[in-house]
Amino acid sequence: MAFVEIRDLSKKFGDNQVLDHIDLDIEKGQVVAIIGPSGTGKSTLIRCLNRLEKPESGSISFHDQKYDLTTKNHKEILSLRQHTEMVFQQFNLLKNKNALENIMEGLVTVKKLGKEEAREIALREIDKVGMLDRINHYPAHLSGGQQQRVAIARALSMDPELLLMDEPTSALDPELVGEVLLTIKTIAQEGNTILLVTHEMDFVRKVADRVIFLENGKIVADGTAKEIFDKPSNERLRQFLVKVKMLEGSEYNI
Ligand SMILES: Nc1ncnc2c1ncn2[C@@H]1O[C@H](COP(=O)(O)OP(=O)(O)O)[C@@H](O)[C@H]1O
Ligand SMILES: [Mg+2]
Fold this sequence. Notes:
Blueprint: E1 4-13, E2 16-26, E3 31-35, H1 42-49, E4 57-62, E5 65-68, H2 74-83, E6 84-87, H3 99-109, H4 115-128, H5 144-157, E7 162-166, H6 174-189, E8 194-197, H7 201-207, E9 210-215, E10 218-223, H8 225-230, H9 235-243
Parallel strand pairs: 3-8, 3-9, 6-7, 7-8
Antiparallel strand pairs: 1-2, 1-4, 4-5, 9-10
Bound molecules: adenosine-5'-diphosphate (ADP) and magnesium ion.
């Protein structure tokens, strides 16, 4: 059995079949990048796994614990979210709490840890993302890159089996993208299991163990970065790579 097993995940919005019976196994420590055209269901996939969207069918299993993603049971949903922490494009930090308090919040309210223990874990995690000198800063006084690093520390402090990230750098000014990508690379090297959506193809090539090309709600290609970028087996994948300038002959080359 794989570390994480996703089975038969389907989601419709009206008549729009956004996810079409997706199966996906992820091994421990794997960094899996989801790529694909806009509107193809990448965000919906990530959101269903954290039950921010309710799919029509689907399950996710961690070891011997299986969650029905269609459940409406609040306790089950909260339990699922302890396995799959999410990093959002817009950081989503609490504005009225400083960096350290943002990280402590889930540890105290969800994990029910005492303040001292929560503080210790939060300090350790914020140190890992290089923000120890900013623990008392409120989100408004942090750059987007710093906010996202705090958000990553917050997610990791909950010790999730699977870290979900939906375009974690696409809301950032270009000069701030690098520091967040470096942070993600560091946590990837520390053995965290990560499923992320990103348009940063150079980063994907360097850091992802595995790349999935999602199109029209289906996994159309699945392989190592080398296989996906250097030998795209599928014509639609090839066309996508041309568009994002990962292959020669891009119509956007100037
Ligand atoms: N809340 C929603 N209501 C209706 N349609 C939605 C909703 N969220 C996403 N969609 C539609 O689902 C499709 C996939 O969206 P999304 O998962 O955001 O794609 P991606 O992240 O790959 O750009 C799109 O056609 C989008 O318009
Ligand atoms: Mg999206």
